[in-house]
Amino acid sequence: MIVAVPRETYPGETRVALTPDSVGPLTKAGAEVVVEAGAGVAALAADSEFEAKGARIESDRAKMLGEADAVLYVRGPGSNPEFPDSDLDAMKQGAAIIAFLDPLDDVAKMQQIAARGISLLSMELMPRITRAQSMDALSSMASVAGYKAVLMAANAAPKMFPMMMTAAGTLKPAKVFVLGAGVAGLQAIATAKRLGAVVEGYDIRTAVKEQIESLGAKFVEIKVDVETTKGEGGYAAAQSKEYYARQQELLGEHLSGMEIIITTAAVPGRKAPILITEKMCEGLRPGTIVVDLAAERGGNCALTKPGERVDYNGVVILGPLNIAAQTPLHASQMYSKNITTFLLHLIKDGQLTLDPEDEITAGTLVAMGGSITHPMVKEKLGE
Ligand code: NAD
To answer: What residue owns the CA closest to ligand 1's atom 34?
Structure first.
């Protein structure tokens, strides 16, 4: 079977789906790896390095796609609004795209691609089970984003993070609050701690208390006296309007004492909840930096403008997009490891074998054999 790795086409995307170290394991499993010329350059993976590991470099993109059984992208159709239709035209029937597909955002698009006889496997839908942990690219990218968010905040802040005892006096450490302590939030907490800040974390899932404390941060208890909807699979669920209103009220009181706020709260398949309203921003001290990691899904702060910096009465709100692309070397290395482990799981006797009975395949498979297969996508299509 042939595994193709095209150059990413999303503006500003620096990652590549496969790095040279992953070529060996795939070749050993019976696959031939073909990489589009220059695909890894922005991630510091030169064509010569791919070749040295046994990959073939191809400069004719359409030719490469035409012979591929599996095509690996970081941003596939769905997560890349600039995705070229010519890629789909070039692919043969029965070929599979494995990528971040954002399949629930534009289900009609998924259906159109399915109708071409192309199989779709979504990295976002990877089941959160122990067996699939090394295939979990969302977690990998969230780790990068959590780390980077703290560096962005530190750069934008009017003060330094650590406490410093100097001849010119003692400087107080920065007070950092991390809202949402999932993968990105925990990494943000760890990074802010390493920089010497005083860190607090909060999440709707109280199960993270221990994880926050094990990083040396304080878990903030905000008891929202409205019924909570419990999520599944380690995720949070969307809450009622009353819940969010009460949560905002209680959070507002706490946030006014903070200097750095990193927000990461997300609910799978939905717009991010607004947890910091404009009124709450009015209560923040001038000089406070908010880094809204949920900007890609609309943001946790009402004033966030995705991709922009907002100055509001001395409060700075950053809404960075595609943060992982700012760390292309490690982000690509992690993504490559995740996608390769997944692909090796799908290869049987040297052939790509999609078994809908397998939990990992079924969890990620959006389309096969001309139709949509995933229940969440079907539901959104009204099927
Ligand atoms: P996510 O990106 O969907 O959400 C980020 C965080 O926001 C979550 O911790 C969520 O609880 C929180 N949140 C949502 N609404 C909120 C609100 N109103 N107020 C406060 N916080 C809110 O989640 P994620 O980081 O991808 O993962 C969440 C959890 O899933 C992890 O912490 C972990 O326990 C679990 N997980 C399991 C595996 C595995 O078993 N293989 C892999 C990765 C993650």
So the answer is: 234
